[in-house]
Amino acid sequence: MNFIIGVDCDGPACVVGQAGRSLTFSGDYRFACGQATREADAAARALFDGGAEKVIIWDNHGSGANLEFDRLDPRCEIALGAGFPRRWPGLDESFAGALMVGYHAMEGTPGGVLAHTYSPLAYRWIKVNGREVGEIALDAAVAGELGVPVIFVASDRAGCDEAGRFLPWAETVATKQGAGTNAAFSKHPARAVEEIYQGVSRAVARIDEMKPFTFPGPVEMEFRFKRLLQAFKARIRRKGWRFTGPYAIRRTFDNLKEWSC
Q1: Per the confidence metrics, is the pTM higher than 0.90?
Q2: Helices 189-205 and 29-49, packing angle to 10 deg
Q3: What is the average pLDDT score of the chain?
Q4: CATH fold of 2-111+134-216
């Protein structure tokens, strides 16, 4: 069995960032990288203990160079850096499942710790076929179009609830309960690591119940930017997009393989 783990740095235990700054430029960043590493490693160890032959860990926060790579299980392969042609680098139809560790809820989610959608500075919201979505649903759909189900999500409570609306079959572990964008009641980091190991073990045991998630095609995507200049620049750079308002652009795709963020 082959698996891939997408790892973000906003959702791990005891990570809350700093008001007015992205996580990468906050005082929380170094701890976030270390805890994301520990949580990703727990997920990988559970996969290998469950019979995995190959595990890719994909660092997908910001520049893609955040984790403490030498502290990951040495059996892992690591996808890092920026500039991959699509989400989930290295994923193909041979994989049994994808996992999300350290993810977060979409922009504007009440009680969502560090909630945003891809860029906290760029997007007010992203919609697919008229429904507002975040990174959890979009990344799940990219994997789903290859026939690969998301089997596990670790996030804050709001992110796990979001995953449940799109991926009700997936196992989840809530690392913390948000009390605001930069405040939370968190599990101890070591407790979160152990619960992730156990949660991934349960997911592997239930692998036959997991389902690929997709959006029915054609896929209409709409982006609402936070600033007017961002919308104009995006419209110029991205061919085939049209304005639906001063801050929003829209385009229809046959499927998400044609789109990357």
Answers
A1: yes
A2: 30
A3: 95
A4: Rossmann fold (3.40.50)
